[in-house]
Amino acid sequence: MDKYLRHFIKYQALMIVMFTLLMVIVVTPAMSEVNAHEIENLRFGGPVAIAFGITWAIAVFCLFIAIQKEDKRFIFPYVAVFGLDLSLLVLREFYLMIMHGIFVEILTIKILIAVLIVPYVFASLFALHRLFTVDPIESQRSEGFVRFDRNETTVVEEHHTNPASSATNNTTLPIVAYS
């Protein structure tokens, strides 16, 4: 893969890391001081906000490790926390719409933000995962991993079906069993 595209994909993920870390540092202390008595605000106050802040910090740290070490397994904690928090926010919005009615002005702003942020985060993390899967910068095994061509089996079959080519070549080819 082109090195500029590789850097761009990793840059997008780093921007997600920096923005999330900024939000955790700025918003979590403010949310921890709020006493949430209503069920719809339980996520946004007290010990629950602190627990989510710590969970977000761990997820951001894992995503940063994933970017630095190019290990796709460390992307999944961030995706899990993002999905959990997103589902809690969506359930909260449905609850508020049912109990208090639809506030068109506020709902429009929330939908606009969700339409911009959610696809950006998921697309960036998916691209990062594909980058680490399809084009790893170093091999997964230390004994020297070699990529083989997909058409390798057809080359072996052609040598077995043509006896004239094997008569001129003194080497014997191994027999490959196919199921």
Automatic annotation (TrEMBL):
Stretches that traverse the bilayer: 12-32, 44-67, 74-91, 97-122
Keywords: Membrane, Transmembrane, Transmembrane helix
Protein name per its UniProtKB record: Uncharacterized protein
Biological source species: Anopheles culicifacies
